[in-house]
From TrEMBL:
It holds the Pfam family GvpL_GvpF. This is GvpL/GvpF family gas vesicle protein. Belongs to the gas vesicle GvpF/GvpL family. Coiled coil: none annotated. Residues 1-70 are annotated as: Disordered. It is found in: Gas vesicle. It comes from Sphaerisporangium aureirubrum. Keywords: Gas vesicle. InterPro entries: GvpL/GvpF.
Length: 323
């Protein structure tokens, strides 16, 4: 069963009587220029949706569609679960080549975000992952969404209703209620080039001595010293990263619903956090992050990416519902 992380116990008033039309014009924001490293925003393995992965694109036996007089096998690709009162303008921006037309299939008070998928091509190109993630993140900027793992394919919209929405309706509805009025952001800190190495050499005498000892010495004649220096520097940077990550997480926690520490994606990462934020406290959170950015000026560059689908705060599997 998908279940968002609500460890802080934060609550808020929620208005679910109306719903904006889900649009696709939300861009990542940042305290510095954003890059597009896939690991920054890729769907996490904790996202809901294992039950929907029982059929992958090359194996699913969908219906047939006429294309130029030739029958073409199709299936239904599943992106995530949204509230049933959401309106979505269909667009041809889904996964596949050509991209599938997006849409919704509803049951009760929830709906599945889907697109049609031609089975003539294998699923798994980088463009497919980008399309999957981009659609989820754009929708998450407007309404709560439970993201499915990349590659969730069922035979038809009817199969999604019968195999997923009906049996897990109440679980999905409860999880969406927990996410109402909240958004996930990713905070990344990157050490300014050379800064952390200078700190290590200043703070660890052995590292400074080793570096001086190999200066001007041929590599083959100083191999052991170079290896030892690399070990010391790596261990020191790991310790600094752990301390800096903990410091940043503790500073942001009072302004967020929950904070999750992510693994670093670069050797010079200072911190990598996923943060669930109440949207009515967004300015407060931004101010706290900006204050920390000022505190770390000339040492660490901080970036804020999002809003995103809550990949880090939806856990469990639909097929585990009810034990």
């Amino acid at each position: 069963m998908p279940r968002p992380d609500t460890r802080s116990g934060a609550t808020q008033a929620r208005d679910t009587t109306s719903r904006k039309k889900a649009s696709h014009d939300t861009a990542p924001r940042g305290t510095a220029e954003d890059d597009t490293a896939p690991n920054d925003t890729a769907p996490r393995e904790t996202a809901a949706g294992d039950a929907a992965r029982e059929k992958t694109a090359p194996e699913a036996s969908g219906g047939a569609r006429e294309s130029g007089g030739t029958a073409q096998a199709t299936a239904t690709y599943l992106y995530g679960i949204v509230p049933g009162d959401v309106e979505l303008t269909p667009e041809r921006r889904g996964v596949g080549d050509p991209p599938g037309m997006t849409g919704l299939v509803r049951h009760g008070e929830i709906a599945a975000l889907i697109s049609d998928l031609s089975l003539g091509r294998a699923l798994g190109r980088p463009q497919d992952l980008v399309a999957h993630q981009g659609l989820l993140d754009d929708v998450a900027g407007e309404v709560p969404v439970l993201p499915m793992r990349f590659g969730a394919v069922l035979e038809s919209p009817e199969a999604i209703v019968e195999e997923l929405l009906k049996p897990h309706h109440d679980e999905f509805l409860a999880a969406l209620a927990e996410l109402e009025g909240r958004a996930q952001f990713v905070v990344k800190g990157r050490y300014v080039e050379g800064t952390v190495l200078r700190e290590v050499l200043r703070e660890v005498p052995e590292a400074a001595e080793l570096r001086e000892s190999i200066r001007g010495v041929p590599e083959e004649a100083s191999w052991d010293a170079r290896i030892r220096l690399g070990e010391i520097v790596n261990q020191a940077i790991d310790a600094k990263r752990d301390a800096d990550t903990r410091m940043l997480a503790e500073a942001l926690a009072p302004h967020a619903v929950a904070v999750v520490v992510r693994e670093p994606t670069h050797e010079e990462d200072a911190a990598h956090l996923a943060v669930l934020v109440d949207t009515d406290r967004q300015e407060e959170f931004d101010a706290a992050l900006e204050a920390f950015a000022d505190r770390w000026a000339d040492r660490v560059t901080l970036r804020l990416i999002g809003p995103q689908a809550p990949y880090d705060f939806v856990t469990g599997r639909p097929d585990e519902a009810g034990g």
